[in-house]
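thought: user wants a sequence for this fold. calling inverse folding tool.
action: design(structure=
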């Protein structure tokens, strides 16, 4: 069921499409594999403890390299960049990089996904001034005990709420909030999260717990499906489905019938959206992944550091995209109603970026 969501109509500077006709539009750039949180579903402490070897600084793409690859990607049709990680705000002088990315021809949207822990008012204003259009913050619970247990560094929810206010005040909006729901962990936070963000101009998006990487011990029973989330919200509020506004939109959008705003649900497990997937991901060391569930990325940094020309690198990127046939979530849905945590070397979310 790939074709129904595929959009072939929008123009781009030079159209690069994959084997299913999906254009390359979005590039998610992981700026670091490090994070100051240890979310139990993403970087569990027993695997990302003091012995874990993070990437050495020299291995990371530097700003010149990131800017160059973003420019070449823009030449292939990318218009939207999302900066992520790990925790992207750990990257020093981030606003300098953003200023350079924002100046690129063809790039018209720069977003950032962050846990918010370092998003002070000053930092938010700097990011805005540098060219970030929107930020997405992650917050998996309003209840402090629940949230602290998930982030596993004792970080309180109130500080993420402050960061959301900082983002709003800086004009980094509309601010979105990602909330991953895991059965037995935080499904009782669905309604408190809804109450927190109704009547605000923040768009709350619930995310089905995904089987990315190999370290989160994913089990299908832990996925609270979009259907269940909708049913839970409806125990208290009437909501109606909204049509998608952009092709390839990841979230199902719902509106509160009483006018209190919107809520989104990213149903990547129960309602896969591979057909509209126009996203490529660049790891912090310059590997290109054409699917969040990739096992191997293609090394771009190697040829770049060995002296490849712009034309050679552009051909390399285009060729990878043109051969792309990824539709992991659809295949997972077709094959396994009851798939367990049997991951087979897939790359971690904290490495490739969400
Ligand atoms: N550190 C930043 C943050 O947390 O916002 C950016 C990187 S994080 C990997 C990006 C997003 O991926 C976060 O919203 C996080 O909740 C989400 N995420 C991580 N692992 C996930 C999983 N297994 N299933 C669903 N979402 C996940
Ligand atoms: Fe860090 Fe984000 Fe992963 Fe949490 S979800 S451990 S904040 S990268
Ligand atoms: Fe895109 Fe892969 Fe996710 Fe499908 S599973 S939507 S191809 S990233």
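)
observation: tool returned 354 residues.
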């Amino acid at each position: 069921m790939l074709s129904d969501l595929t959009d072939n109509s929008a123009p781009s500077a030079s159209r690069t499409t994959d084997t299913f006709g999906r254009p390359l539009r979005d590039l998610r750039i992981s700026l670091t594999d490090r994070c100051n949180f240890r979310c139990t579903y993403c970087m569990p402490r027993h695997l990302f403890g003091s012995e874990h070897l993070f990437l050495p600084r020299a291995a990371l793409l530097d700003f010149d390299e990131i800017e160059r690859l973003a420019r070449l990607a823009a030449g292939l049709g990318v218009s939207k960049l999302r900066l992520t990680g790990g925790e992207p705000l750990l990257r020093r002088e981030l606003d300098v990089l953003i200023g350079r990315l924002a100046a690129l021809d063809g790039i018209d949207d720069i977003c950032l996904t962050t846990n918010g822990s370092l998003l002070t008012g000053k930092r938010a204003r700097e990011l805005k001034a540098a060219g970030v259009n929107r930020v997405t913050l992650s917050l998996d619970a309003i209840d402090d005990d629940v949230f602290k247990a998930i982030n596993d560094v004792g970080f309180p929810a109130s500080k993420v709420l402050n960061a959301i206010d900082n983002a709003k005040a800086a004009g980094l909006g509309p601010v979105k909030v990602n909330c991953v729901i895991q059965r037995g962990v935080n499904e009782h936070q669905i309604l408190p999260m809804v109450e927190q963000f109704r009547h605000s101009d923040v768009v709350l998006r619930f995310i089905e717990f995904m089987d990315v990487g190999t370290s989160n011990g994913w089990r299908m029973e832990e996925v609270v499906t979009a259907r269940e989330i909708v049913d839970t919200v409806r125990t208290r509020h009437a909501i109606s489905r909204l049509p998608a506004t952009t092709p390839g939109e990841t979230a199902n959008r719902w509106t509160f019938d009483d006018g209190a705003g919107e809520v989104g649900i990213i149903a990547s497990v129960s309602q896969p959206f591979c057909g509209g997937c126009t996203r490529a991901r660049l790891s912090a060391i310059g590997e290109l992944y054409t699917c969040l569930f990739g096992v191997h990325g293609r090394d771009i940094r190697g040829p770049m550091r060995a002296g490849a020309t712009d034309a050679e690198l552009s051909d390399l990127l285009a060729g990878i995209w043109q051969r792309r046939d990824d539709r992991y979530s659809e295949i997972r849905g077709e094959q396994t109603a009851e798939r367990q945590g049997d991951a087979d070397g897939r790359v971690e979310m904290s490495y490739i970026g969400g």
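thought: summarizing for user.
answer: Here is the designed sequence. The first helix runs from residue 63 to 75.
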